[in-house]
Amino acid sequence: MKNFPIYDYYINGKKPMSRISVLILILIMVFVDVAVAGDSSIKVNCSEQSGMIRVVLETDSESLINQSNVSESYSLIKISFSEPFSYKGGAVVESVKIYKKEDSLFLNVKNLQKIKVVRLSSPPRLVIDAYLPEQKKKPPTEILQADAKEIRNFTLMLDAGHGGSDTGITGQQFKESLLTLSIANDLYKQLAPKAQKVLLLRREDVYQSLEQRITDAGKTRIDAFFSIHLTNQKYCSIFISKIPANTSSKDIKYNVALAQSAYIERSRVLAHAIGEAIKEGMKLDVVYVEAPLPLISAIRAPAIMIELPTPATLSYSAETINSLAASIIKALVDYAQR
């Protein structure tokens, strides 16, 4: 056998390297490659549908998905993997909590009933459908019809907040001025058959000054006034006017900005009735606020402003609008009965 010299390897033609050193270097490179290849990343995305939450785990390693083991017990789903991975997070709904422990991911799904698991490729994905108990909802049309006779003599006014160049809150796919107008128009269609008259303070996406709104609102005698706005919060806020202390009856009579003083207690009752109906019908948290809002303060009728969550929190589907209309009708019925 031919004997090789101890130093017969060169790097860049300069420094000699022994065979032992080369072997050590090769082994190090192999182990590094294995470690990098084994440490795949997993990203999780969740979406919530009627009676189901879909959890999608996506990675670049097909073996990681194919060799995974999924088990469930009560509200916990355990996903065990045969190789190391890093959890990169993702979009997760509030009812799902995810945490990593060693080579497993644990999903805590509230009210979990059963799961269905599917493995997909291109890209490698593990899809888990977590089924929840079915919630029987009373049809919105049935709610809208219940006791609506109590408000058949009411004249209502709806104010779609902002308008035109005054866009209000904006997002990637919405403007507050357009969305409040759409909500007000849909509410009009739902409420008009139940009340004597429903008026829209703004019918198009045009700018209206505060003075113009106050003037237009004062042209008709109304029984209730609702101003519709959006908030960046996850909850619903309901505002009534805050009247300065020691306001005299003379001030109330001649100062338009204090017109709400004579109706403030009735506005408070209506606000709480609306809030309770929204909590029950729309499953939203509600906060109550008293503030010196110029438009509300100038209304000579029970008046409130409703700030609804943005589309990032609440999907404004036909069902959502029906639930909001049902909540307003229920609140008006409760208010009328007091």
Describe this structure in words.
The chain is an alpha/beta fold. It contains nine helices and 17 strands. A six-stranded mixed beta sheet has the order 13-12-14-17-15-16. A five-stranded mixed beta sheet has the order 7-3-4-11-10. Strands 5-6-9-8 form a four-stranded antiparallel beta sheet, with no helix packed on it. Strand 12, helix 4 and strand 13 form a beta-alpha-beta unit. Helix 4 (176-191) crosses helix 9 and helix 7 packs across helix 9.
Short description:
By secondary structure, the protein is α/β, with parallel strands linked by helices. It has helices spanning 19-38, 62-66, 140-145, 176-191, 210-217, 249-254, 264-282, 294-297, 318-336, and strands spanning 7-11, 15-18, 40-49, 52-59, 69-73, 76-80, 85-87, 96-101, 104-109, 114-120, 125-131, 155-160, 197-200, 224-231, 236-241, 286-291, 303-309.
Task: Write down the secondary-structure element order.
Answer: EEHEEHEEEEEEEHEHEHEEHHEHEH
List unreliable stretches of 5+ residues.
4-12, 30-38, 138-146
Terminal CA distance reads 109 Å
Strand order of the largest sheet: 13-12-14-17-15-16
Overall 3D shape: elongated
The domain count comes to: 2
